[in-house]
């Protein structure tokens, strides 16, 4: 979306022995090739290496910083609590400190999370107390308060976007929504027999990721920074997600889904539901429904396996975002 608005975009990637840029390959052009010039530049760095962050800030001189990086898998955070705290919590502080020390006037967006609310009673808004229930949530809570502290202590434009679950066909395959849609398509194709999940009664406020990108951008353009809840105001259980995904292709999920205790969290978050009144008053409202979201994801995973799809997700994309066949480019075409 930023590229479509004429931005010069600089991204930080971790050094690895294999290429890990698959999600942006359709945007990136080899500088030695003959393709059209795209103002996208990649830099090696790491949230656990403060010098790399300081160097980036000095060399790039950014106007806006969108901090979306983290160890963001909640269940994994129980297995790697120290690493999660270092990257997800202290990583945010390192960026803020690099901006402060450089004297940068850049606007800073922190990808906060609904997991902060944990066991707090729904619906949750900007005034709801935080009751984190995982190392990931605790690390994000530290990051949230550091953003507020830097905003108030140093008069920095530093904003927390408290986003509830946002999904799309790009969602990682180990996250429950994508795990379900990918498995449903694989089962239909005869490539998979069973799907193993944990707690089916958890309720989440699930929305469509490109619309949440619009919200991030909106929060960076307002006059005063702050803390904002972004969500649909509607929650559904994992069971309901299974109903929608498998029902869409006329399968009964009860024939394939099994419960595996290893996928239960040591401390569970039962019910997350956004009260996005403040964001709604600013002009942001979601357009894709829960059912539409599931169908968009299902159509993409069916198409990825060469299977015909009912096409409802395609229709939604065509109406709201442009050409379905460019769904990997959705963020680039939102302004249509």
Automatic annotation (TrEMBL):
Gene Ontology annotations of biological process type: 'de novo' GDP-L-fucose biosynthetic process
Protein's name in the database: GDP-mannose 4,6-dehydratase
NAD(P)-binding domain ranges (all copies): 2-297
NCBIfam families associated with the record: gmd (TIGR01472)
Family the entry assigns: Belongs to the NAD(P)-dependent epimerase/dehydratase family. GDP-mannose 4,6-dehydratase subfamily.
EC number(s) from the headed UniProt entry: 4.2.1.47
Reaction(s) catalysed by this chain's protein: GDP-alpha-D-mannose = GDP-4-dehydro-alpha-D-rhamnose + H2O
């Amino acid at each position: 979306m930023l590229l479509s608005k004429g931005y010069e975009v600089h991204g930080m990637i971790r050094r690895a022995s294999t290429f890990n840029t698959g999600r942006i390959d359709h945007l990136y052009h080899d500088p030695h090739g003959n393709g059209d010039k795209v103002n996208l530049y990649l830099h090696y760095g790491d949230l656990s290496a403060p010098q790399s962050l300081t160097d980036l800030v000095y060399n790039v001189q950014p106007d806006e910083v969108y901090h979306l990086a983290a160890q963001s898998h909640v269940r994994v955070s129980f297995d790697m609590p120290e690493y999660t705290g270092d990257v997800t919590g202290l990583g945010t502080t390192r960026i803020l400190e690099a901006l402060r020390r450089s004297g940068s006037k850049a606007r800073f967006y922190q990808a906060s999370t609904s997991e902060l609310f944990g066991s707090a009673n729904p619906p949750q808004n900007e005034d709801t107390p935080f009751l984190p229930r995982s190392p990931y949530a605790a690390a994000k809570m530290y990051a949230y308060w550091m953003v507020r502290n830097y905003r108030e202590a140093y008069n920095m434009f530093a904003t927390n976007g408290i986003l509830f679950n946002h999904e799309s066909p790009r969602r990682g395959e180990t996250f429950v929504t994508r795990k379900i849609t990918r498995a449903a398509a694989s089962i239909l194709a005869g490539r998979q027999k069973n799907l193993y999940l944990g707690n089916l009664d958890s309720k989440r406020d699930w929305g469509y990721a490109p619309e949440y990108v619009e919200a991030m951008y909106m929060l960076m353009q307002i006059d005063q920074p702050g803390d904002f809840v972004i969500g649909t105001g509607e929650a559904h259980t994992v069971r309901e997600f299974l109903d929608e995904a498998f029902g869409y292709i006329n399968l009964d999920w009860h024939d394939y889904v099994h419960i595996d205790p290893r996928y239960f969290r040591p401390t569970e978050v039962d019910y997350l539901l956004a009260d996005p009144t403040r964001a709604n008053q600013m002009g942001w409202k979601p357009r894709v429904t829960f059912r539409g979201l599931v169908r968009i994801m299902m159509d993409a995973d069916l198409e990825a396996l060469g299977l015909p799809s009912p096409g409802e997700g395609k229709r939604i994309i065509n109406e709201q975002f442009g050409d379905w066949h460019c769904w990997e480019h959705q963020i680039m075409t939102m302004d249509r």
